[in-house]
Specification:
heterodimer; A: 481 residues; mainly alpha; two-stranded antiparallel ribbon; 20 helices; 76% helix; B: 536 residues; two-stranded antiparallel sheet; 23 helices; disordered C terminus
Chain lengths: 481, 536
Amino acid sequence: MAPAVSFALLPEVILALAGCALLLAGGERRRTPAAPVATLALAAVLLAGVAVMLTGRPEAGPGMSAGGMLVVDELSWFFRLLVLTVSALVLVMAVGPLGRGGGGAELAAMVLFADLGAFLAVSAAHFATLFVGLELLSMAVIVLVACAPGGGRANDRALKIFVPNAALSAVMLYGISLIYGAVGSMELAAVRRHLEVLAHVNTMVVLGVVLIACGLLFKAAVVPFHLWLPAVAGGGPARVSAFVAVVPTIAGLACLVRLYSGTFSPVAGQWWAVVWIASAAAMVFGSVAALVQDRVKWMLADLWIAHAGYALMGVVAGTVAGTRAVLVQAAVAGVVFAGAFGMVALLEAREQSAIRISDLRGLRSGGAPAVVGILIFAAALAGMPLTAGFVGRWLIWAAALEAGLVWLVVLSVAASAVGCACCAKVVAQVMVVDDRPEDDSRAAMARDGWTSAAVALCGLAIVIVGLWPAPLVAWAAGAIG
Amino acid sequence: MDTQYGWLLNLVCFLPLVGALVMLVFIGRRDVVAIRRATVAIAAADLALALPLWFLYRPDGAEFQFVTRFDWIATLGVQVFLGADGFAVLLILLTTLIGLIASISSFAIVGQRHKEFCAFLLMLQTGAIGVFSSLDLILLFTFFEMMLVPAYFLIGIWGGERRLSAAVKFLLVHLTGSGFFLIGILALYFFNADGLAAAGLTGLGNEPAFSLPQLYSVAAAIPVQLQLWVFIAFFLGLAVRIPLVPLHTWMPDALVEAPMAASVMLASVAVNVGVFGIVRVAMPLLPHATADAAGWVGALALVGIVYGALVAMAQKDMKRLVVTMAVSHMGMAVLGLFTFDGPGLSGAMLQLVNHGVSIGALLLLIGMIEQRRETRLVGEFGGLARVMPLFATFFLIAVLSAVGMPAFNGFVSRFLILIGVYRQSGLWTLIALFGLVIGAACMIWMYQRVFFGEVTSERNEVLEDLNRRERCLVLPLLAIVLWIGLAPQPVLDRLQPTVDRVVERMSVTVPQAPETDTRDAAGAAFDDDGLPPGEN
């Protein structure tokens, strides 16, 4: 079995090598041309994807690699492919800007390192790899935020993740140590076995499980640990926001699914209420904050918080259908938000500062692509039928209802209606309001072929999945095993 | 299940949508003539295709005819499952007719962005026809939501002064309602399959399905407690659309703000999906809960009938007056439904058509006078009968239809409904009659002030009577008014199978009244505690 194990790490090795190569290529004073950087980064992502496809889906049940530190199972297969998809979309969007500002190689390298961290985290079989993966991911994202050109005060934003990240990582680490103290192991499978036979749940376990939840809820940007996301994704350049909003939070969700729908499910009674409240609070807060938000990127970030709340409902449900729904919701939201931020990137090209909803006024006359794009993304964010957004929402509600979470579903319906209202607000500016301001404050679609292509791809995927969700649902169902 | 001519129903349902998309892509924004021609051609073709459905439908045949069925999401049991019963065929025919009239009437009104306007009208038409012909709950929900998007734009883009707030209110109220509707659908789905273990509900263990005929077959097994919750969820979604007091507040705003063609579509067609949903989904699937709720819903409907008429009295704007009366008319339809009684049900279903025809004609006529005078205030007019005799005649027929004068269509449905209500409760009949009288008084008073007396304003002296296009728009509706008013039997024949099936499905809860004493049954079905006899 030895060769198989070494091949199982191939995707991670590809990402690490390509990341290092990019770092070496892009020295501080040298200006690297954009094309080779983008090509190398994209090639690494695609190769890693191929490697995941080839090695990552064991036919005969989960396999271990890296000496039992990583598990190669269907959940990790699904989330690694999802992370790579979003990364590829963001990299394609960034082909243009990478060439302009300089330092593009570092940014691309940080994307790859963040992916590597996410890979380790989503396929962790041991608390150590989980923690190392999440930290690598966070550090890479912090550097990415700090280095990203465009949009002033990048260091401020980086600090806004860095400080709470340090605090909550410590909290999570403390939780891990408590669990270790209680059951005497850091291997997830062993922890689960111990918890299953635990005669009575002691305080150490309860505290450990809840503290780990706090750390992961921070990564997934769920209320009350969400404050970093609007500040970071709202203020930064839209392409970076796309990555920062989607990839770390999806990795956080994946870890929540692995730990709380798997390892900690024997003690579900101890953490259930915490996740229930977090989910409800995220849905309500995210939707309401988005409704009163005037800046488009902040609004998207707030809506992401609401979407993380929807996804968490599947974890609260704790059933197979719930896990499947989390997966579908994560995939759908990942693509929808990547595309939506890309759309904002296109609209922001003319001006450096964040666009406001009122800047979209009369964009209709800017041509059909802008209107169709905004309509599709708004419909998907609102969860309208015939878009992918509906598929995610529907499966989540179905799973939660099946698990008897009626009040959480009712809350979620109300939050969803508020979210719809805020999408309607945007659409109204584009479609309804006619008096287009003549000054330069208005938004217009930039000519950026790569970004447009990536956004169009997302839009197409949203519509296709909306019309024909069967393959995605089957894929997610297969990913649970 | 009768799959013959399934393709025809598909064509009727999807032609407007496909036509709208083709038009959006292939016709230039400025080529208004081509846009008009294309829209009218699509709408006319749709009507021409829907007419054969009326004749091909066999009242003695299968419950659902013209069926198409294939898998959409096989793993979840979602199907594309279309079919129609007599009630649906009638509503589809009404929708296509109103659709054609609305698209022609949009010629004069819409100043700008004509292409989008026509496309949204056509999309709204597909949404409504889709709701009427869906036999799968998820598909039904999809069409349900699909109606909201064009309606939102039609109100929001082309509406009057306060269009944006009206559109947002419309959207928010409807979306919240539909969210609950979806939850109700999911609860039934799980009950039919594996159950909701966490809620302590064991399922039937069937194949997961959203198909209505399959769910009908298990309806008797649904426990009363679950029925009640699902009914509340469905009711929230459907009552918004009907609209029933107190969820009606979106309607006057939305319909008054909407431009003429859109308000005709919304008032004549879109509101029908609520009542239709009760007949198609709530009654057959949740007979016990529907019977339990009869007292409450009936009371709401009665409040709507009286309240709508009273509020209409206070209106100075003709359009707002007519739209407020619509709340009263829809209340009448709901009251008829919740009698669970042959005549009441027939009357309620017929009331939808009558309401659609009469309010459609009234809104068209008000739109025409608004174009001439740029006002709709009753006080601005007077003595129009002398200046515009043809207009006055048409308006009178529409008003008489709306108030339910004998020999006009409104009378037939109201009479049937009142028969149904009288069998249940004399007091309720009196209240309903009271509402009807106020409504009639208020409409006729409006007519008198606008059309009789001296011509008070100089600007009214020079108004032109209806031109040929306007006459052609209103005449078909007036023909239906008289046709249903004088010979309603062909329509009632087609409704009868649906009525019989509803009565049969509801009969598990409402005991058939003994021939000798109808009073007992009346008291029992509308008992104060809302429980039908023998239910505890």
